[in-house]
Amino acid sequence: MRITITINGIDTEADIRGPESLLTLLRDELALPGSKNACEQGECGSCSVVLDGDVVCSCLVMAADAHGSTVRTVEGYGDHEVLHPVQEAMLDSGAVQCGFCTPGFVVAAAELFDTNPSPTSDEIREALAGNVCRCTGYGAILRGLEDLSANNAIAGDQTP
Amino acid sequence: MECDWPRDLAEALEALDADPHASLLAGGTDLMVEVNFGHAKPKHVIALRRIQALQAWEGRRIGAGVTYTRMEHGPHVALAQLARTVGSPQIRNAGTIGGNLGTASPAGDALPFLAAVDAEVELLSKARGTRLVPWDEFLVGVKRTTRRDDEIIVAAVLPERLPERQAFGKIGVRNAMVISMVSACVTRDDDGTTRVALGAVGPTPVRARRAEELISAEPTPSAAALAEFARLVSEEVRPITDHRGTEQYRRHASGVLARRLLERCLAA
Predict the structure, then answer these.
(1) Which of A125, B12, B45, B230 has the CB geometry, 3.0–4.6 Å to B6, for a possible disulfide?
(2) Which of B3, B23, B32 to mutate to test the interface with A (most CBs of A within 10 A)?
């Protein structure tokens, strides 16, 4: 079965054989390995993508059901020249240890900040509640994002 | 694998009528776990996500495709409370009330609420049209419902009027992303009528009818009445021991949780 998905702004065609997940399609067929495969049951958040505007676990999206949809993966945030502000903030705070969970955190955090540029600490924690870091590096992740929020608030105040 | 992407209910019913054994796919949060672990390999999937009619939430009729994220921000206190305890933001963006009914897991978190308020399940088939089924005639066992093969779950239908005082709680090993070991929903009307439904302590939600009867007759329940309420709830549930908890713990926790939720209703 042939399907079309708009991934990071590019119309992408794919052949689907079975009920495999969007995550499998992205990683194994479409050369987009940024989304990570770990729990395969929606508990870890390392495969987070944005599907038609909502952050979801791509391991729990049937690839066939993404037909006609818009998907943004971690590869769709920033590039080698200019990082997304969330990536910049996490870099500044040393929020990456082994790095395996990082793509999921970036997607979940970027979606939060793109709709709410200066979230409260509680809002940040809430938005990241579906992402697990087994290095338990949460402190640095939260600090980086709280700093970004504070900087955005100042920048917002200075905007006429 | 074959997949249909119906745009409306008529198209979906047509596809299901042609193959009543097709798998109905809503948010995917249950079915895809089965697929990923090799327990399910659907040959034909009817994906319901694109059907606008299933997204509608009008008054007491909650479309089957309404997600937990939407329930979290909806008008019913206990429904919003339970929605917030489900999985993570990612899961709540995908999982739906129709999926919770269709999967019929004993631990389904929306089910104690639907049981406490005596909700009905609206089903639709090409051959027979609409059928309204009370929750306790729909949920009949562990992951077993009376949905017929040619039917689609269209909505959960609440009664005309809901008690304003309502509370939901659940117990698990931690606060986030946890499957209920015990869950409960309590509602209390101005005239004292109290309802208590518990999840994960029986094959389907358990209404503790004797506890309800006792406490409904108490306009301002004494400490002794509350204790007796908790004791009756513990007696009426039918838990088993499994990897999430023991029968004994679940029985005890059911009484404690129900009493706390009742106290919250009384204070509200």
Answers:
(1) B12
(2) B32
In angstroms, what separates the C-alpha of A129 from chain B's closest C-alpha? 6
- Cα(A124)–Cα(A127) distance, integer angstroms: 5
Cα separations in angstroms, B259 against A145, B188, B264: 40, 12, 9
Find, among B149, B135, B123, B140, the residue nearest to B15 by Cα: B149
Query: Cβ neighbours of residue A122 under 8 Å, at least 6 residues apart?
Result: none
Rounded Cα gap, residues B18 and B160, in angstroms: 36
Task: Identify whether the C-beta of residue A16 lies closer than 8 Å to the C-beta of residue A25.
Answer: yes
Query: A48-61: string of b/e by CB count within 10 Å (b at 16+)?
Result: bbbbeeebbbbbbb
In which residue are the tokens 């399609």 written? A25
A50 touching B (Cβ < 8 Å): no
Residue in A90, A91, A63 with CA at minimum distance from that of residue A7: A63
Backbone angles phi, psi at B253, to 5 degrees: -65, -30
Distance CA B238, CA B241 (A): 10
Tokens coding A135: 């290095």
- ipTM computed for the complex: 0.95
Query: Which of B88, B93, B105 to substitute to test the interface with A, most A CBs within 10 Å?
Result: B88
In sequence order, which ranges of B189-246 are alpha helices (DSSP H)?
A: 209-216, 223-236
pLDDT tens-digit map of B17-64: 999 999 999 999 999 999 999 999 999 999 999 999 999 999 999 999
**B158 to each of B61, B114, B119, how far by Cα in Å?**
6, 8, 5
Tokens 């479409």 found at = A30
Q: Which residue has the tokens 């495999």?
A: A20
